[in-house]
Design goal:
This protein is about 50% helix and about 10% strand. By secondary structure, it is of the alpha/beta class. It has one domain: Glucose-6-phosphate isomerase like protein, domain 1 (Rossmann fold, 3-Layer(aba) Sandwich). It has a five-stranded parallel β-sheet with strand order 2-1-3-4-5, with helices on both faces. Helix 3 links the parallel strand 1 and strand 2.
Length: about 190
Amino acid sequence: MPRRTKLDLVIAEVISHLKEVEGKIDRQEVDDLIGDIESASAIFVYGAGRSGYVARSFAQRLVQIGFRAFFVGETISPSAKKGDLLIVVTGSGTTQSVVALVRSAAKLGLKICAISSNRNGPATRLADSVFMIPGKTKLLERATFAPFTSLFDIASLMVLDGMTAELMERKGVTDEDIGRTHANLE
């Protein structure tokens, strides 16, 4: 039998972790965030590093299914105001740029949801709601084959894509509808 490579070990660990996440997601937290998204005037999404890529992907999907959504820091993002929603993706809940943004959003009266693996980080303690997604963060809670924050990042992408599918169903949006809003200047 061939030796299992690091690649094999990482793939097996990610698959196992995603199955674990499926059983640990709090469905009430899912419903609460979906309700916040549906009722927000505008949705601002942010994350730093790899969590930022996950956040950008989610903001893109929200736009493609008909929401007024923006990734914080882009030059085309409008002013935020009371009635808007800020969603931050932060595995550790400690990233300085995320904590500073959450504080700013709170001063403006935005509703804030932190998607995190750490309920006790500064950003998560300041948020109005926390959506917990298990995974190893930069706090290095445990040894893994998957590098650094990969388990949280991959799990967050999966869960947010699942929420996108739920939002699509509720809005009656199809893949064909997304195809019409997908970038075409390629």
